[in-house]
C-alpha cells in the first residue's frame, strides 16, 4: 500500500516522528508548513496539499537517523523514496531552496541529479516558505533570511558559498510567488 505522504497530515506525522529532538529545526519546520499553507493560493487547488506536505518534510534529512551523505535534501529525498512517497514529493524535497547549488559545493551533483527538478509554482512556493522563515520559525523577509544564513555558516563553508550563488535564483522564486499571491 503506498504511503499517502503527500497529505499534510501524514507528512506532519512523519516530520513529528523525526524532528522534535532537533529543537529549532522543528520550530522552523512547523513555521515553514504554516507559511506554505498561507501561500497555497500561489499554486493550483489540487497542488496545495503537495506543497504543504513538502514543507513539512523539506528538512527531515537533518534527522540523525536519516543521515547518510550529510547533505540533507538528498538524505531526506532518499528516505522518502524508500518509504514509497510520491515522486513529486521526493523531487520537491530533493530540490528545495536551491539544493543544486549546495550539491555542487559538496561534490554530490550526480547523486542529486537522480531526482529531476520541477521548475514550477509549487517549487517556487516551497522556496518562498523556507526563505521567509527564520531558523527558529521567525517570520523574516527574504533579505533577512539570506543574511542570517550567511552569518550562521562561515565564509568558505559549503552552505555560505552555495547560498551566495543561489541568491538570485531563490529571490526570483520568492518574487514570482509574491506576484501569484498578489494576483490571487
Ligand atoms: Fe533545508
UniProtKB/TrEMBL annotation:
The residue ranges of the HD domain are 27-109
One matching Pfam family = HD
Q: Which InterPro entries match?
A: HD_domain, HDIG_dom
Protein name as catalogued: HDIG domain-containing metalloprotein
Q: What is the lineage of its organism?
A: Bacteria, Bacillati, Actinomycetota, Actinomycetes, Kitasatosporales
